[in-house]
Amino acid sequence: AEEFVSVPLKFFPIGPGHYPCKILLISSYDVRVYCVEGVVNEDQPEAALTFETPAFEPLIQNIPLHNETKKEWKCQVKIEAKWFYGPAILHIRPGETVQYPLTFKPISECEIMGKLTVKNEVDSMEHIINIKGIGKKPLAFGTITVDCKVGDVASKTIIVPNYSMTILTFKVSSDLPIVSGDPHITVDPDSSVSYVINVCPLKRGILKDEDLKNLRVWYHLEIHASAGPPLNITEVKCMALETSCIEIPISNPKEETLHIDVILTSPALSGLQQLKLSPLESVSYIVWYSPATIGYKEERYGVSVALYSILLLIF
Question: What GO cellular component is one of the record's annotations (predicted)?
Answer without folding.
Answer: cilium
